[in-house]
Amino acid sequence: MIANIVCSFVGTIAFSILFNVPSKYYKYCGFTGMVGWMCLYFCSGVIKGPFATFLATLLVVLCSRIFAVWRKCPITVFLISGIFPLVPGAAVYYTAYNFVMNDLSLATDSGIHALKTAFAIVLGIVFVVSIPRQWFSIEYWKSRVSKKRVVS
Amino acid sequence: MPNHEIVINEVQKDSEMHRVLELALEAGRVLLSNGAEIFRVEETIEHICKRFKIEEMDAFVMSNGIFLTAHDKGREIFAKVKHVPLAGTNLEIVTEVNNLSREISAGNVSVEEAFVRLRDIEQLPPKKNIELEMGAGIGSGVFCYLMGGNIYESIFTVLIGFLLYAIILFAARRQVSKIIINLVGGAFITVMALVVSNIPFPFEVTLDKMIIGCILPMIPGVAFVNAIRDIADSDFISGIVKLLDALLVFVYIAIGVGFVLSIYGGGLLL
Fold first, then answer.
1. Domain segments of chain B: what residues?
2. Which residues, including other chains, have CB under 8 Å from residue B217's CB and lie 6 or more apart?
3. Selected residues 91-150 of chain A with any CB under 8 Å from a CB in chain B
4. Which of B135, B219, B254 sits opposite A96 (nearest CB)?
5. In this complex, is the C-beta atom of A55 within 8 Å of any C-beta atom belonging to chain B?
6. pTM of the model
7. How far apart are CA B220 and CA B214, in angstroms?
8. Distance of alpha carbon B101 from alpha carbon A54, whole angstroms
9. What is the pLDDT of residues B211-239, one digit of tens each?
10. Cβ–Cβ gap A92/B136 under 8 Å
11. Residue A87 and residue B98: Cβ atoms within 8 Å?
12. What strand order describes the sheet that includes B75-83?
């Protein structure tokens, strides 16, 4: 379990280097990726694959939006690195493998699994991205509270 | 001659507005070519124009072009189409332009100053090749381990990922098309994994975990995520174009991997 935490943290940072993420954001990128992977890790065996990916994506996008508002930088920085551990790379490989090994039923199985996972990621991102931006800033909630006080 | 003065003033104002719009267009171009989403480009252009009191403007942004027009009291003062070829991703530049746009909106930066800073930002050096290669290698190895590979497989994956990215960077510098890069990349990792798994080691080395780890650095994460975000913002044209781009890369990788596997397994040789 500790190996999982460390590995997903380090791995996400390694991939964020590929996108030229500024080095001061590495730790946040790593944390975002770690949250996603640990969600998958705890869900495995309890919840079915694509739905677990959906939950993990929700967490990842939520994390990256909070970081984006907090550090005042584009959400893309955290989102792209954080999504990486969830990408169905294994399913793509097994699709290709079974396809050339002429095992078409297994190939379709893993192909459809890859598509389902991709759609789960899409849904997760769309859900959280549609939340209004000001909900993520503390000032907004503070001003709401003070407004309520004035009214009452 | 009051009439004359008015004309001079108008000309001066026009050229000032031109300069502002050029700045907005330039900022948009830098953002778009470094992997920003459509709505961020549109918003940045709008913010810059608003800050310098240009109210009647329209920006239409697509995944590889920006159309910008502006009016002032019914007179057309600016119309320009900018073609933005797809380039690599550099999130550092996106972040810096985003900060600059914030500062412009806050009113701390003049137009000429902003031009200078924009040029400086665009010339920010990208990460060194060796850093990118190390990143790809370590990332592949670590994810190979996470997907259930053992420690020896992971170490080989680090090496293969490192070499793979060296090849990708080498090819990208010579402007080899993306199709070829991904096909060859997929084939290369499969060949390397086959070689490693056929060496009789005292420990077990399996093929699939190594290939899965090495595929990851080639995955078009930026295109995929930006496509989804554009579609979520109803920028369907750009979203579909980027989604197709991402899907095709997946297909090319799969073809590269499958081609080598089928030769090895005898699928093509009957």
1. 2-122, 129-265
2. A15, A18, B136, B139, B140, B161, B164, B165, B168
3. 92-97, 99-102, 121-122, 125-126, 129-130
4. B254
5. no
6. 0.85
7. 13
8. 34
9. 988 988 888 888 888 898 888 888 898 89
10. no
11. no
12. B57-62, B65-72, B75-83
